Amino acid sequence: MSRISERRYSEEEESLVAAMNLVDYLRISLVDRCNFRCQYCMPQTQDLHFLARAEILTAAELMTLIRQVFIPLGFSRFRLTGGEPLLRPDLVEIVREIASVREVEDLAITTNGFLLADQAADLYGAGLRRLNISLDSLRPETFAQIVGQDHQGQRSWQRYGQGFKRPIRLDLIL
Ligand code: SF4
What's the pTM value of the predicted model, to 2 decimals? Predict the structure, then answer.
């Protein structure tokens, strides 16, 4: 008998292994780019380098990973993030594909919400029922200071209100 098979786990090790088997939640970054330049994340003063499109998983590659790797490993709850995931042109299709997998119990998106007004209805139609929206301030001027000069002004601010009117459950962290 090999030394490995003779090894006995301590109670502590066994409970750690049991806890690891309970991990069923996976965050998937769909894109590294963002339409904001938050001071604490992608400041305008910093020289940013993003991945080339060919280096990012396609929707088909992502679905292969989910179906053939993550689901068999026990993952059943997924969150799509970025960068800003709503910048991904095939996001609605990705949501539809993931939501249609029988084993998927929960699917959510974390977004800065800026493009939500244009996409919320399609995302809902594709099966999305949960969103987290990062909103750094309820004051338009403070908000613009944090997320970058391109988003100053009342028009930018009003886009949020339009997105919130869609029939999706919102988890807001203010
Ligand atoms: S919205 Fe999120 S991903 Fe985009 S720059 Fe701000 S913190 Fe980073």
Answer: 0.81
